[in-house]
User: What shape does this take?
Amino acid sequence: MLDDFMTRAILAGLGLVLATGALGSFVVWRRMAYFGDSLAHAAILGVALSFVSPVPLYMGTLLVAVGMALLVSWLAGRGQAMDSVLGVIAHSALALGLVAVSFVPSLRVDLQAFLFGDILAVGRSDLAWIWIGAIAVLGVLIWRWQRLVTVTVNEELAMAAGIRPGVERLVLAIAMALVVAIAIALSGRF
Assistant: This one.
């Protein structure tokens, strides 16, 4: 009926949709669309680092995406303008990734494949990573849903209810980093 690669592509897409559906609501409500885009561009540094080191692709992208999410959350919490921080960090990480790849003469890879991807190239092990990551993000969102919604609606109300907005922003940023890392891994095939 369906070819094996089509079945894997459908399963990969469904796994990613599990996490991105609920997470996307917060991205829209909190006006964080550029945050996700910046994480995706910065994750290219993780891809490059995984090519020049023994770190697996999934771990490289995850480490850089989480590191960027933590850095952006920390700088935004200190009063820095979010758009400026995102622009500088995302483009710096993207440039560093391109420079890192250029220093490996034996590496011949098209990094555009990691930006635009090919869902039809998803393998069986990729499916496991996608579903584990998506279920983890969905579990965190379900667990923290009421707190995240309260902080999103009104931070002062959240503080009055004993909720720390900084913690919830950090949870949301790390969840987005995990989704970006598994989405890069989903699309990142050569």
